[in-house]
Amino acid sequence: MQRIKRIVVTVVGGTVLALGLALVVLPGPAFLMIPAGLAILAMEFAWAKRWLRSARALLPRRSENDSAPRKKLTMQSVWRSAGFLLRQVRRTLLPRRKNT
Asked: What is the DSSP string of 67-87?
């Protein structure tokens, strides 16, 4: 039974990890899939546990008494972002006028 569990963990974890690595160049949430694959593989393999620990060390942690204010999503920031995106779309789709 232990051997079957190890094979299942290897296949499932390896597949999720490979999908996460493919999503690095394809559109998708690679930053979620790679740690998920490592977490599955860490149930059976020490090397995956070490890699997962080093991946967690790269992410910044917030403590309870962190004095930095949390970023809030406000209507002003939404409007500014929408305006920026619309300007970029307009610049991309509409050709520049020639000065004659």
From this structure: -SPPP---HHHHHHHHHHHHH
